[in-house]
Amino acid sequence: MIEVESNPGCGTCIRVHLPAIEPPSSGQTSTRHSSIAPFPRQAGALAALPCSGEVVRESDGKTILLVADDAPARKSMQGILRDAGYRILAASSGKQALKVFAEYSGAVDLLIADFRMPGMNGQEVAETLLGQKPGLKVLMISGYEHSPDESAADAFERIRKPFCGRALIERVVEVIHSP
């Protein structure tokens, strides 16, 4: 997929999305494809942000606790959010997120958590942290439309995988500024 965006006085942004594939084993052709990467390969790609800068001003120094067990995805989201002006506290597991939150609880404005993680899932992390800080904004990352084990997480705002950097920033702005 190729996306082209042009704004007068700002320039043109061209994004090319290619599927990631596994190389065939020696002498065999492979039909097995890995999933399309949900985040840009280069963390902090400014192409994911509007050139006018309105999203950057929306950050207002807000702090986000980002919890995702997939390291490349977490690092990519961390870079995108940091480039948009947010302060990011990252954790690779629910247990680590609880430790980070205990250290910075007063500073955390938004929790972004992957719903499916080994050990403590995103919903469990959110419920635990909401018990410590009622009113904490939560954005759940999910790749599943209607999974029975995720139905209880419907109480939280969501963003569906795969998504681009711009969609992440737009969703974060919506959730942080929601009543």
Spell out the key features of this protein.
alpha/beta, Rossmann fold, two-stranded antiparallel sheet, 5 helices
Summarize the entry for a quick read.
The protein has 179 residues and is of the alpha/beta class.
Give your account of this protein's structure:
This protein has 179 residues and is of the alpha/beta class. It contains five helices and seven strands. α3 packs parallel to α4. The longest helix is centred in the middle third of the chain and has 13 residues. The radius of gyration is 17 Å and the shape is globular. About 18% of the residues have low confidence.
Major sheet: arrangement of strands:
4-3-5-6-7
Number of domains: 1
Helicity range = 25-40%
- CATH domain class: Alpha Beta
Strand content: 15-25%
Distance between the termini: 36 Å
Order of helices and strands: EEHEHEHEHEEH
Largest sheet: 5 strands, parallel
* SS content category: alpha/beta
Describe the global form. globular
**Averaged pLDDT:** 78
Question: Helical stretch count?
Answer: 5
Within the CATH hierarchy, at the fold level, what is the topology? Rossmann fold
Per CATH, the superfamily is Response regulator
C-alpha Rg (nearest Å): 17 Å
Unreliable parts:
27-58
Q: What's the CATH architecture name?
A: 3-Layer(aba) Sandwich
Number of strands: 7
How is the topology of this model organized?
Blueprint: E1 2-7, E2 11-16, H1 54-58, E3 63-67, H2 71-83, E4 87-91, H3 94-104, E5 110-114, H4 122-132, E6 137-142, E7 157-160, H5 165-176
Parallel strand pairs: 3-4, 3-5, 5-6, 6-7
Antiparallel strand pairs: 1-2
Helix pairs in contact: 3-4
